[in-house]
Amino acid sequence: MKPESIGRVLGIGLRVAGRMAGQAMNGDAQTNEKAASERAAEGAATTAQRTVAAAERGRSAGQATRGLAKGVGGFLRPFQRVGGTIWLEVTGVLFFLPVLVFSPVLWRTHLSYAHGPGHRDFVISAVIVALFLYLSVSSFWRARKR
Q1: Domain range spanning residue 100?
Q2: pLDDT tens digit string along 27-60?
Q3: For residue 36, is it within any domain?
Q4: What is d(CA 138, CA 26) in angstroms, rounded to the nearest whole number?
Q5: Which of 1, 24, 108, 119 has the fewest CB atoms within 10 Å, i.e. is most exposed?
Q6: Does the model's pTM come out above 0.70?
Q7: Is the CB of residue 122 less than 8 Å from the CB of residue 113?
Q8: Is residue 12 part of a domain?
Q9: Could you tell me if residue 15 is inside a domain?
Q10: What is the per-residue DSSP string for the chain?
């Protein structure tokens, strides 16, 4: 099928769907006007009854939601401790990766720690290794305390 004909088919289909939706909306509007006039005739007593019924439905829905949340929370509670411990161990491993990457640079430039040509590389790698080693060890420490 040619691209021009695909566009025509889609355009015609969109126009037909738009007309159908417009006709349905006009029919719904007329139906809604009739229903509104009938509702106005029912009076204020019916409105009060509807308000009370809606409030009761809202309360029962809130109670059902609270019950569901408590049930799901009770089901997931045992997994919370295990999941938190695993999370801390995984982050500890991920924090240890930069230590493994920068330790060879630290060792290679350790003779230049004071004033050598690799002084800047030594200082940067020492800071990175110290920071990520601290983060890794503290993450494993917290996992162990759980």
Answers
A1: 43-145
A2: 765 666 666 666 665 555 566 677 777 778 888 8
A3: no
A4: 67
A5: 1
A6: no
A7: yes
A8: no
A9: no
A10: --HHHHHHHHHHHHHHHHHHHHHHHHHHHHHHHHHHHHHHHH-HHHHHHHHHHHHHHHHHHHHHHHHHHHHHHHHHHHHHHHHHHHHHHHHHHHHHHHHHHHHHHHHHTGGGTTTSTTHHHHHHHHHHHHHHHHHHHHHHHHHHH-
Q: Identify residue 67 by its one-letter amino acid code.
A: G
Dist CA 72 CA 79 (whole Å): 11
Residue 124 carries which side chain, given as an amino acid letter?
I
Residue 109: what are its φ and ψ, rounded to 5°?
-105, 15
Question: What number of residues does the chain have?
Answer: 146
Total number of domains constituting the chain: 1
Q: Is residue 109 part of a domain?
A: yes
